[in-house]
Design goal:
single chain, alpha/beta, Rossmann fold, 34% helix, binds zinc ion
């Protein structure tokens, strides 16, 4: 029997797996691949972002509730899930921003979370790893840290000299950044909504876009067709009840517009130990051939 292919995606908080690359991970899982989502932190610092959930007793039980939400989302996406067990750093707000709390994920010395991720990589043995780019894709210290830890673990996992106590070395073959928030995509959604006489939630976002900042879309090498899984993605997002307001911009673009205008999720290939040709339409391009040769 052919070996199943394995994909690992590394995220900072519970709900990031459902808002970034969720439809493509659901597709890979549905097509018979093994998919594991790793979450660096417990999301303890998240406040209640859904007014319907802002009621007594919820905030006190936040860590527990977020674990239940995450388990539901993983079930909906059809993926395995592991916690790395670090504490959410929170998004520092204010001018100047306050220091990050002692002991939080973003303040860990790099080798501490790297050891944990290396252990998970050696246990699951992914062929492909997905993480965020060097900006974190979103200016949160945990997202930037997630990037740093993933890069370090990608190189360390296959090296027998590093973290020898964390399991038998395993070298993943490809590493990608997930790019969800491209300006081009938002602009197309915005235009389609206005054409239909609908309200667009992107007006302000587009106006505030810093013109000197390159569109992440320019870095995309790999587009995964996954429109059939947009509903699954939305259902997984809604499972994070305390974080996701069902009336928010996450759900503002009707699915038929999304399917017509942007039926893919987009990735950037940053490391490859196999031969592949860009642009790609499959995260496992080149891996299939190597594993099943
Ligand atoms: Zn996050």
């Amino acid at each position: 029997m052919a070996e199943r292919l394995r994909l690992m995606t590394v995220h900072a908080h519970p709900d990031d797996e459902s808002s970034k690359g969720a439809a493509s991970t659901a597709r890979y899982a549905a097509e018979g691949n093994d998919v594991m989502v790793v979450t660096c932190t417990g999301g303890e610092a998240g406040s209640i972002l859904n007014p319907a959930m802002d009621r007594p007793g919820v905030v006190e039980k936040m860590p527990e509730i977020r674990r239940e939400e995450m388990a539901r989302a993983a079930g909906i996406l059809g993926v395995q899930h592991r916690w790395m067990g670090f504490v959410d750093s929170g998004l520092p707000e204010g001018d100047p921003p306050p220091p990050l709390p002692e002991g939080c994920f973003a303040r860990q010395p790099l080798e501490v979370p790297t050891a944990e991720l290396v252990r998970l990589v050696r246990e699951f043995r992914p062929h492909v790893v997905v993480t965020y780019d060097e900006t974190g894709g979103y200016p949160h210290p945990d997202h930037v840290k997630c990037h740093e830890v993933s890069m370090e673990a990608f190189d360390a996992s296959g090296d027998p000299e590093r973290f020898p106590e964390q399991g038998k070395p395993w070298q993943p073959l490809k590493l990608y950044y997930c790019h969800g928030f491209s300006r081009r995509r938002m602009q197309l959604f915005h235009d389609s909504l206005l054409e239909r006489g609908l309200e667009s939630p992107y007006e302000e976002w587009l106006r505030k876009w810093d013109g000197s900042r390159p569109d992440p879309y320019e870095r995309v090498t790999t587009q995964i067709e996954c429109a059939d899984y947009f509903e699954v993605r939305d259902e997984a997002l809604r499972a994070h009840e305390t974080q996701i307001d069902p009336n928010s911009r996450w759900f503002a673009v009707p699915l038929d517009i999304q399917r017509a205008v942007w039926p893919t999720e987009d990735y950037e290939l940053v490391r490859s130990l196999v031969d592949t040709t860009l642009p790609e339409d499959d995260l496992f391009a080149g891996v299939q051939e190597r594993v099943h040769a």
